[in-house]
């Protein structure tokens, strides 16, 4: 992985948006290049500053309807035919006639080939304008997404809910509940056959503004960060333990805002839930 590729992953990770595979690639690259830790620190600091100064913005009531109307009314542009596909030739439209008094001698001298070239350039210009309109619409959607969440419009279901449903319906679904030090409780739901684990925390303790909860998977005594966990207004949280394998322990620690700068826990966990290793005879994913 090049430093440029790592910078792209680091920026996305600061926003807690890496997939499990990307998180693993990120960790491996950082382990191979510890000097890149400065990049991680800079991105984490930037994300923390943005989250601290950006006040929540309530979406306008008509915003969603306006976006859908804009998408519905945007002209769709015809793509080139697939390999081997035939399409009828476009209808030849003769050039518009001009009033005699408005004719320009230089234009009258254009032959058929020159006119065809002119028409081709006009068509290309129109296509360019069309693509610019599409790009503009994408830019508007991206800009709006920073003002209010589009998850209800673009994401049919929360991945945490999907995973929890899959685990709950599995024949080997298991749960384990522990008390949170000085607060509520947490329950881990997992399934060896599904290969998913979801942590539901009820009543996490209040933290200072310069602190965050961080989720970890501990495998063979080696902790792997799954990112920062920010609870809702009632101090509850539902998080997916991405990359879970039977036998892993899932833990939560309190770290500085943005997560541990060393990518290792700096405090004792406020909760930790161990899971048994998969039974080889049961055909679990940990075999």
TrEMBL record:
InterPro entries recorded: Anti-sigma-K/W_factor, Anti_sigma_zinc_sf, RskA_C
Ranges for domain Anti-sigma K factor RskA C-terminal: 137-267
Region of interest: Disordered: 78-99
Record keyword DNA-binding present: no
Key word Membrane present: yes
Locations listed in the record: Cell membrane; Membrane
Main localization (coarse): membrane
Source domain of life: Bacteria
Residues spanning the membrane: 129-150
PANTHER family: ANTI-SIGMA-K FACTOR RSKA (PTHR37461:SF1)
UniProt-recorded name of the protein: Regulator of SigK
Organism this protein belongs to: Leucobacter chromiireducens subsp. solipictus
Upper classification of the organism: Bacteria, Bacillati, Actinomycetota, Actinomycetes, Micrococcales
């Amino acid at each position: 992985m090049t430093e440029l590729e790592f910078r792209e992953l680091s920026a996305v990770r600061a926003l807690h948006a890496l997939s499990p595979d990307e998180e693993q690639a990120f960790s491996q690259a950082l382990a191979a290049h510890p000097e890149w830790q400065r990049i991680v620190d800079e991105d984490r600091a930037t994300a923390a500053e943005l989250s601290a100064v950006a006040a929540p913005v309530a979406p306008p009531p008509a915003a969603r309807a306006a976006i859908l109307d804009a998408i519905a009314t945007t002209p769709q542009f015809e793509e080139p035919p697939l390999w081997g596909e035939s399409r009828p030739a476009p209808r030849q439209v003769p050039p518009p006639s001009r009033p005699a008094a408005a004719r320009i001698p230089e234009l009258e001298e254009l032959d058929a080939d020159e006119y065809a070239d002119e028409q081709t350039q006009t068509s290309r210009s129109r296509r360019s304008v069309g693509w610019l309109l599409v790009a503009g619409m994408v830019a508007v959607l991206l800009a709006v997404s920073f003002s209010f969440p589009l998850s209800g419009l673009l994401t049919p279901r929360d991945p945490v809910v999907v995973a929890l449903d899959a685990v709950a319906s599995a024949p080997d679904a298991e749960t384990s509940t522990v008390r949170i030090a000085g607060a509520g409780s947490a329950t881990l739901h997992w399934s060896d056959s599904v290969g998913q684990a979801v942590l539901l925390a009820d009543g996490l303790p209040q933290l200072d503004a310069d602190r965050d909860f961080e989720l970890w998977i501990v495998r063979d005594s080696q902790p792997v960060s799954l990112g920062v966990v920010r609870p809702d207004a009632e101090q509850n949280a539902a998080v997916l333990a991405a990359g879970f394998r039977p036998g892993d322990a899932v833990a939560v620690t309190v770290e500085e805002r943005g997560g541990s700068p060393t990518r290792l826990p700096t405090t004792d966990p406020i909760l930790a839930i161990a899971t048994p290793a998969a039974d080889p005879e049961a055909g679990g994913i940990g075999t």
